[in-house]
Amino acid sequence: MGKEFLYIFEEWAKDYDQTVSGKDEEYKEVFRGYDDILDTVARASVGKVLEFGAGTGNLTAKLLDKGHEVIVIEPSIPMREIAQQKLQSERIEFVDGDFLQYPSLENIDSVVSTYAFHHLTDQEKADAVKEYGKLLGVNGKIVFADTMYESKEAHYIAIEDAKKQGFMQLAKDLQTEYYTTIPYLQTVFEDNGFTVSFKRSNQFVWILEAIKL
Q1: Contact (Cβ atoms closer than 8 angstroms) between residue 13 and residue 78
Q2: Which end of the chain is more exposed for a tag (fewer CB within 10 A), N or C?
Q3: Whether the Cβ atoms of residue 65 and residue 42 lie closer than 8 Å to each other
Q4: Residue 209, Cβ neighbours under 10 Å: how many?
Q5: Is 193 exposed, middle or buried (0-12, 13-18, 19+ CB in 10 A)?
Q6: What ranges make up the beta strands (E) of 5-54?
Q7: pLDDT digits over 174-207, tens only?
Q8: 3-151+180-212 CATH choice from 3.40.50.150, 3.40.50.720, 3.30.470.20, 3.30.1490.20
Q9: How many other CB atoms are there within 10 angstroms of residue 95's CB atom?
């Protein structure tokens, strides 16, 4: 994750929970069904979980509620501090790092993330999935919820729709961050030994569930 994105998240930390609650009209659709999306990711997870980009710990709390041991990787110190204040459990370990750089880990059964994988370029996404394929054993799972598109044309249409609604910050985000396509991700996961499925949650977010063969 680049320094510019890390700065954005540090600035966003104090207002993050309010934004995901749907009170920001411009991003209301992006976070529509946020709680259900997190529930779906938590339910799909198995065993010991490695969570990337945990933010303020909302998904982490649901994972803990379902009895999982969780290793949390969150590069933003303010985000991590809020999560630590919310969550106090012997089944959680907070680690500094990001999708591509993190300590050596063992016995991970699931890799999960919500609203964060798009901060990686397509090549970085492929590099990350390759490493997760080495980290996970047979039947290990990757469960990501994030904005992605069925095609490049669908991505372009989403940008134009945001502009028409006057959501210029959203349009800028859709243009400048690294939102990718489902066909690209399907190829990446299958090339690294996973079977993968996609389920749409709202106009923007899909849930990707991959199982290591």
Answers
A1: yes
A2: C
A3: yes
A4: 20
A5: middle
A6: 49-52
A7: 999 999 999 999 999 999 999 999 999 999 999 9
A8: 3.40.50.150
A9: 16
